[in-house]
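Obj: model holo form, ligand = coenzyme A.
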Amino acid sequence: MAMPRPPILIALPDEIRGRRVLVRPYRPSDAKAVFEAVEESREHLRPWMSWVSEHQTLDDSRAFVARQAAEWLLRTDLGMGIWEIATGRYLGSTGFHRIQWDVPALEIGYWIRASAQGLGYVTESTALLTGFAFEQLAANRVEIRCDANNVRSAAVPERLGYAREGLLRSDTRDPTGTLRDTLIFGKTRGDWERERAASPGG
Ligand SMILES: CC(C)(COP(=O)(O)OP(=O)(O)OC[C@H]1O[C@@H](n2cnc3c(N)ncnc32)[C@H](O)[C@@H]1OP(=O)(O)O)[C@@H](O)C(=O)NCCC(=O)NCCS
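Output (holo structure tokens):
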């Protein structure tokens, strides 16, 4: 078997384009758009995202996009912005986290600004990243985790045919400090290939 490439040399695209959204790595010029989206979405993000209370100023957004761009270059964490193709509007964030390049296995995370919730944008961006992981990154496993109480988040992998693999009881705390359970959804390369074979033209 050929030696795997060092992760820092793994080729990545400038953007991944879908029907209504595109996802792409962060640039320094994205900071203002990120800040506006976070400001609009505090109430809706606070119950689920622990970083929200520490993200208070435009400089916090500048630091966020700079860190994301640095990690993208290093291939340690692949955070990406979600953008609406029709308007160029920043919609939220997604990406591959907890990356194990030696498997390869990746976790997809996401949040969407409050005014863009309920339109299917996250299902579309997650479908794009799932396909990219299996087809371009040779992933053997893609995982999605969420708070067991986060019904909207769990609906995304359910819509995309991920298997509900488990429930970790009292494994972490939510942003208020309350103990929570975590749901785990997964899709393997075998699942992906079976879906492709069963889909028309697949
Ligand atoms: C979790 C979260 C990203 C889900 O966002 P969402 O907008 O509900 O998800 P989608 O973009 O896939 O949209 C699905 C909704 O759009 C509707 N929809 C409209 N067009 C659609 C389409 N073309 N495809 C799929 N769904 C579509 C669906 O019916 C569904 O509506 P419903 O909520 O009334 O059932 C969002 O609630 C969020 O940002 N929450 C706060 C942060 C968070 O919890 N992140 C996850 C941490 S694990």
